[in-house]
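Input record (one chain):
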Amino acid sequence: MDYKLLKTLLEPIKKNYKRNIKKEENKKKIYCPPEKSDLTKRLLDKDTIDPNELDYQKSFHNQIMMELKKVEFFFNQNLIFYKNRLRKINEQMNFIKQNKEYKEYQSNLELALKELYKEVNHLKNYIELNLKAKTKILKKFNKLTKYFLVKFHSGKLCDEYIEKNDILKTPVKFINDLNSEIEKLFVNTFFNKYSQNSLKVLKEYITPNIFTQSQSFYLGFYCGIIFILLSTISLISYDYNIDMDDDINFKMIFPMFRGFGILCLYLWLLGLNVYAWNINNINYKICFGFKNHYSNVISIFQRAAGFTSVFVLIFFIYMIIRTEIPVFLIIFINIPVSILPLICYSILIIYLFCPLKNTFNYEGRIYFYTVLLEGFISIFNRIDFKHVWLYDQLTSFIGPIRDYEYTMCYYVHFQKPDLEKKILCSGTRNVVLFLGILPHLLRMLHCFRIIIDSGKFYPQIWNAGKYSCAIILAFFSFFVNFYPQIYPIWWITAIISTIYSTFWDIKFDFGFLEKGKNFPLREKLSYKNKFFYYSICILNLFLRFMWVLSTSPEIVFQWFRPEFVSLIIYSMEVIRRGFWNFIRVELIHIQICKEFKVTNDIELPFKKNERGEFILREKNIIDIMKINKRLDKLKTKTMLN
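The corresponding structure, as predicted from the sequence alone:
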């Protein structure tokens, strides 16, 4: 039901209502005999009657009747479609029961039945919401016409129309009957799998909990271990008065710990991103092109908690070896300190490259490698939002990427003396400069690719300019160590690049500064609290200027060790990127959400041939969404601004 259009049709009626109220207030000041005090008699003056008054009311009535018929048609058509869909699923389930060799496809039908159940309940919400809107708009209509001399009884006529129509009169009955059939089929078919919990499984599918009780327990258990270890590390550091400058080995291995720790931080932020997108109904799965696999919130948090536990435990072992605590030293005395970061990275490598399917998020890792490779190839081919998003993340990971390169260099030259390793793995090597400009260079080439595909210079030419500034800044940041006289130029370039990037974030990546009722934000917002948007913008600006810490080392180093300044700057950039993700993905969702359904299209495994017999489809793929060519063009035009 087009509620906005109906409200627009009420505007002229509202003006007449206000004029009549104003005239009535003026007449109250004049004495009027009791027998003529009735409001209707007072409004009999010719100047109070608008000749178009009845036409306004008839236009409103015609429109609301048209909207009711649209709702009825949509509801009726979908109800017929869902009944046919249920019949097909039932037939294919009976076919599998008779042909046991096709039992492996029963899981496809189970998913199709669950999605059908979800769609039917969405239809129920749809009809209830529209009938509620009808009641609300008619209430406004009756309020605005209560003083009118000529009144069109639109509400009464609408009620009569609904009373004669079974679908609009008792829509919940039709929905409940269909739901009962789905529940009965699900319980009868999957009772052996779920036993008495069959109905519970079906209902939980349409109202899933982000955290189950067992998942919450394990996540809390991991977080508890992390908290205890961090508290113990802090107490040991305070009690033994540890000074990092006293340990040369720590300065050598700290960058390796730093890179792994920032990765753990990013995983926690990614979990928060997915959690926020879920509770605000932002369909990130479509934005990233997920098909038959994606990680839910609890899975991401569990990975983050697992890697963080490993990181904190290894660092705890380092603190024990460093302080030589007698009780624990016996256990870890034979472990060289320089090997400890390697344990962390070994676990990460096993996770990333484990070849076993159904282990360590195998399909998610394949998706990551595919998008990473496609993002590089897309310089010469078509580009999508998922490629742009991933390489934007890499631009914020330049610091940790340098730490990973340092880790490789350190262990390649592990047998050499520490002084020689320090020289061979220093930050003045050309590879450090290359890693600093590579993500920005790839993103700049992506911008040129989009310009070629779309045939439009604006706005991507300005986006390419932003990455060009970042590349120039990376050059100055590298060479300022050799030529201190270019320090003022580095300052100017850093300020220009930061302001340039911040403006691009606000205007194009966030879609703000759009004229309308929500200015300076945008017309459509998915997050309910506007303060959230303003907070993200302020934090984005503040965190982009965190590089200022490195400009006054004589002041900053009074409070932080040089090694920790880099940790703070790298961490703040990753946190900024996490906040950026909230708004960027939300904007992409808003741009394309009208083109998609809220439920998944599940392809049934069988089809009927010309003789009416079931045969297996050639491609039995469970697709989350069937994205056609028109939507691909839409993504290219709107998602990559």
